[in-house]
């Protein structure tokens, strides 16, 4: 049992190391794009990242989502942001539009989940249970 926990810890450390590596790579690209570095770079981008992940189908409670779908969600958010910047839309209205897109994605996900649960109830007579 101890070896199993050790393997899980090694996987967790490897995942965090990869996340750090990708973050560093993203910051190098960001600094190259901006032409300078500042300690306040990226402040407030958490909402954009979470919205892109949720738009891609990642469940905030865990247990669902694919990396390819998340990349598509982040690309959609990026295209929206670039389009709004090209049209000189105020930042406040950009966040409002992003919130509306996020609400639409969450509502659609909720409807799809309910439909899947109802379909499973019709087939088996009981709601599906989460497996650990």
Largest sheet: none
Helix count, per DSSP? 4
The low-confidence parts are: none
Q: Which class of secondary structure composition applies to the elements? A: mainly alpha
DSSP E strands, number: 0
Helical amount: over 70%
What order do the SSEs take from the amino end to the carboxyl end, as H and E?
A: HHHH
β-sheet strand percentage: under 5%
Task: Return Rg in Å.
Answer: 19 Å
Distance between the first and last residues' Cα: 18 Å
- Mean pLDDT across the residues is 82
Shape: flat
Short description:
With 132 residues, the chain is mainly alpha-helical.
Please give a structural write-up.
There is one protein chain. By secondary structure, the chain is an all-alpha fold. It is built from four helices and no strands. The chain has helices at residues 2-34, 46-55, 67-86, 91-124. Helix 2 crosses helix 3 (67-86) and helix 2 (46-55) packs parallel to helix 4 (91-124). The longest helix has 34 residues, at 91-124. It is flat, with a radius of gyration of 19 Å. It starts with a helix and ends in an 8-residue tail after the last helix. The model has no long low-confidence stretch (mean pLDDT 82).
Keyphrases for this structure?
single chain; 132 residues; mainly alpha; 4 helices
Chart the SSEs and their pairings:
Layout: H1 2-34, H2 46-55, H3 67-86, H4 91-124
